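Table 4 source record.
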Amino acid sequence: METLWVREDQRHSGWGSGPMRAAETEAARRGCTDMTVSPHSCQAPGFHPRLGHRERRIAGVPGGHEDVCFHRQLLPPKDETAGGPPA
């Protein structure tokens, strides 16, 4: 998925956080250790921090601006085989 837009009246109902958590889970399953997202300034500014993403700013954009992105370190997937098969 490249872009997901949630209507303002539907925010806080899981339409954004559900797919984001699923993407994090799948990325960790594939061995990824970090996730970086780059939302537009018009998107809900508190969304990514609520999910545990930390804001990062990178200087050097023409005109004295900064590139803003959000980063989160991913947890490795739980080993479902640890401890043997279920009883």
